[in-house]
Amino acid sequence: MFLRMSRLLDKFVVYLSRLYYRSITKTAENCPVPDNVREHCDVPYLNRSGKQLLMDIFEPVDDNRERPVIIYIHGGGLVVGDKIMSKGFCIELAKRGFLVFALNYQLAPIVSVYDQFDDVSAGMDYVGSRIIDFDVNPFRIYLVADSAGAYLSIYTAAMAKSAKIQQALGQTPTRMSYKAMALVGGMFYTRNNDAVGKYLSHFFYRDAQKNKAMEPYLDPGNAEVSGNLPPCLLVTSEHDILRKYSEKLLGILWKHNIDYHFVYMGDDKRFTHVYPVLHPEDPESQKVIDIIKEWFDKY
What we know:
Elements: H1 2-29, E1 37-46, E2 52-60, E3 67-73, H2 87-95, E4 99-103, H3 113-130, E5 136-146, H4 148-159, H5 163-169, E6 180-184, H6 195-204, H7 208-214, H8 223-226, E7 232-236, H9 243-255, E8 260-264, H10 275-278, H11 283-297
Helix pairs in contact: 3-4
């Protein structure tokens, strides 16, 4: 009886989450693409198992210089979400001269987080094979993500440099490396005694063997994770439900001598979780996007 009730609760949590993100997706779909950005929709790529996934590409036009590259990983608690959610945000980055690739990945509980690491790694390598089709600067490649996408991003980036994490996962890491990252409202901690840990984490950690092997690294405070990250910009606000995650990671980056920049949007009640991504047209969001550009211009 308890197991049945638990499964019903799980389904209800996922249903509510998908209902919420569906409304966000509908709004994002109607975001206009300006004349100085070219959109390439639903470009297919294959994960390591051969499953077809999709990405969108936002290309600046009328720009003769070599473009820096951004790979964008969307959020959604690992159980919901889609690349379309960040369409407006990616367009703003493209307007500032970046060639932006926004990746989709499979969602839990259909797959585990370890499959999602693999999807993202495969997508990143596909981007590496595609950038030769564009006029880019191959030495200026950056990673941007929000919420759960930020979680996937830090582990995928760290795995590329950590033989221990590679061995624990038994996966092929991405060959891509990043000059810097920008992480908005990151869901960096998945096993705390909070809503994420209680109601979501069992959706993603569904491989008992890999859970055991990854146990030492499931806290990003482990040096194999945070110590192998590129320079990080963290964005949060007073009313970001995951604000404490960013603040905690900030201290860890300092401990491991990782260059960082912390952007605190303030205590305006409008500035909720991943606000700059969902409302990129807002003047305060525009300031955040400009700060991200300035941060990347340093590297």
